[in-house]
């Protein structure tokens, strides 16, 4: 583990995981993921969340090294999802004097996962704005329900002005990997938290009232500088506003002809001056990245082969993901293909019409098996309308 410095009194005790095949059993993580946990060493000692059971031993060794023989007084449980709370039972048993800090929902849910002895006697139940003093350090708690579980809360350490942000500001990628923050943080955000923009907005409003000098999330790097940049992105994302001008062409093609047309359309858009065009093959490219791109840019073109009178399944899957994550406020256009009765555009429209604040842009490009000159003409017209 790279030496991760927080402050003199606050130590990083988390662990990287580079062997996990899929995060939450669905997201590829080419650069792994970090499970973050922290310990605050003051007159009282507080452990800020535990980690996934895949790395319990490493995490306990990190904790014991930092404790250097001291005991744990408090275990703060900001989120009960197993990648953060799975080692709670072990920690609670190892330090039987330690009190658990959570909110009413936390303590309702804990028995579903664990059987901790004397839980009622060991529970410190906090509400919005409550504080717990550790000596020089004071933790203040703010509820963040449905960011992205109901019991989630964040903690603000008042003396060093640090926000322990739970899964907020989280990112895929192990901590010893140098990579752009926004790309993997955006993929994490939209796929995991995306549905709860309103709740993230509520949390950002609370955060705006605090002087935050550092953000310590439960995944990804500790954010120490330029915090306005990260908070600004979270504000844009949670309002469902496009972050950049650009056109995503997402295609679902069985034999390749719809894919060929999608790529031709990208060339036409670029020739007409489109600032950014992204083409994604929904059969083969990472679905989570396709979702991320759809949210990142302001325009989406859906190109799909007709399949048994409906949609080729990866397009149906993509639209299901977008709907589940509250996709809205974008321009959308359609391309369809079929050999005898193309109905993909009608079927895509029926789903998309239920999205909030979308503008459907005509004309629909209808291809019969292979792209013809007349299809290219329609694409030219659609490109002009999208770029107008
Ligand atoms: C299992 C299957 C079901 C299909 N169902 C339809 C259909 O209902 N209507 C239609 O017009 N074409 C249908 N097609 C034909 C394709 O949509 C058509 O050949 C299209 O050109 C394929 O585009 P692609 O080359 O991008 O895969 C079907 C093809 C397959 C393999």
UniProtKB/TrEMBL annotation:
<dbReference type="InterPro" id="IPR001279">
    <property type="entry name" value="Metallo-B-lactamas"/>
</dbReference>
<comment type="similarity">
    <text>In the N-terminal section; belongs to the zinc metallo-hydrolase group 3 family.</text>
</comment>
<dbReference type="GO" id="GO:0010181">
    <property type="term" value="F:FMN binding"/>
</dbReference>
<dbReference type="InterPro" id="IPR008254">
    <property type="entry name" value="Flavodoxin/NO_synth"/>
</dbReference>
<dbReference type="GO" id="GO:0046872">
    <property type="term" value="F:metal ion binding"/>
</dbReference>
<dbReference type="InterPro" id="IPR045761">
    <property type="entry name" value="ODP_dom"/>
</dbReference>
<dbReference type="InterPro" id="IPR029039">
    <property type="entry name" value="Flavoprotein-like_sf"/>
</dbReference>
<feature type="domain" description="Flavodoxin-like">
    <location>
        <begin position="247"/>
        <end position="387"/>
    </location>
</feature>
<dbReference type="GO" id="GO:0016651">
    <property type="term" value="F:oxidoreductase activity, acting on NAD(P)H"/>
</dbReference>
<dbReference type="GO" id="GO:0009055">
    <property type="term" value="F:electron transfer activity"/>
</dbReference>
<protein>
    <submittedName>
        <fullName>FprA family A-type flavoprotein</fullName>
    </submittedName>
</protein>
<dbReference type="Pfam" id="PF12724">
    <property type="entry name" value="Flavodoxin_5"/>
</dbReference>
<dbReference type="InterPro" id="IPR026816">
    <property type="entry name" value="Flavodoxin_dom"/>
</dbReference>
<dbReference type="InterPro" id="IPR016440">
    <property type="entry name" value="Rubredoxin-O_OxRdtase"/>
</dbReference>
<dbReference type="Pfam" id="PF19583">
    <property type="entry name" value="ODP"/>
</dbReference>
<dbReference type="InterPro" id="IPR036866">
    <property type="entry name" value="RibonucZ/Hydroxyglut_hydro"/>
</dbReference>
